[in-house]
Amino acid sequence: EVQLVESGGGLVQPGGSLRLSCGASGFTFGSYYMSWVRQTPGKGLEWVADIKRDGSEMYYVDSVKGRFTISRDNAKNLVYLQMSSLRAEDTAVYYCARRGRDDYNPLFDYWGQGILVTVSS
Amino acid sequence: SYVLTQPPSVSVAPGKTARITCGGDNVGTKTVHWYQQKPGQAPLLVIYYDKDRPSGIPERFSGSHSGNTASLTISRVEVGDEADYYCQVWDFTTDHCVFGTGTKVTVL
Q1: Does A107 contact B100 at a Cβ distance shorter than 8 Å?
Q2: Pseudo-torsion of CA A88, A92, A97, A99, nearest 10°?
Q3: Which terminus of chain A is less hemmed in, N or C, by CB atoms within 10 Å?
Q4: Are the Cβ atoms of B35 and A108 closer than 8 angstroms?
């Protein structure tokens, strides 16, 4: 059974940093792109970042470029989201998601339960 | 940036049909996926590649694609279908994933 479990969320002050982790199990981790998607309370879904299977390429939404870094450890089946220079508008539930195998029509076939990040003084 | 527009809400009586649209520039040239999100839960893929259903998704859920609009249709709506629904595409010009604005389906 595929499982994705996020950790590391919480309350952080504006300008601060936080690292989210996502532990994966139930599939061959290194064979899949992994992603982070967020959802502002009461609002819609926003894709945040993707990382290629071997960690060699990363993609980001413009609003987090230069502030967030996605990385992965295939030996430990973990994907991370390092967030710095956090702003109030980064407050959201962050979901770890597995991208499907089709690189030409990317979709998210499994999601974690989500973790709340609150940026506030 | 690429935008996918959905109606904010759709109301439907039990047993009737709900249709959710997803509009965007040249969306007819893109592959559309659909997600269901119930309160307090993570999104769930319900339609992929415009019209295919993952295993476990009832046949009542169907997808279609015509011109500049993609649609998710829920037939014989049940109370348990009440949720937010999002369409999603990949914008290869920017290598960005794009989600639709979301539609709240209310079962009257």
Answers
A1: no
A2: -60
A3: N
A4: yes
- Give B5-55 pLDDT, tens digit per residue: 999 999 999 999 999 999 998 888 899 999 999 999 999 999 999 999 999
- B86 touching A, CB under 8 A? yes
CA distance A50 to chain B (A): 9
- Does the distance separating the beta carbons of B98 and A107 come in below 8 Å? no
Q: Give chain A as a DSSP string.
A: --EEEEE--EEE-TT--EEEEEEEESS-GGGS-EEEEEE-TTS-EEEEEEE-TTSS-EEE-GGGTTTEEEEEETTTTEEEEEE-S--GGG-EEEEEEEEPS-TTS--EEEE---EEEEE--
Summarised one tens digit per residue, pLDDT across range A18-64 is 999 999 999 999 999 999 999 998 889 999 999 999 999 999 999 99
Beta strands in B1-108 (DSSP E): 9-12, 18-23, 33-37, 44-47, 61-66, 69-74, 83-91, 96-99, 103-107
Residues of A in contact with B95 (CB under 8 A): 59
Chain A residues within an 8 Å CB radius of B54:
109
Q: Which amino acid is at B44?
A: L
Interstrand relation of A10-12 and B44-47 (parallel, antiparallel or unpaired): unpaired
Per-residue tokens: A92: 């959201």
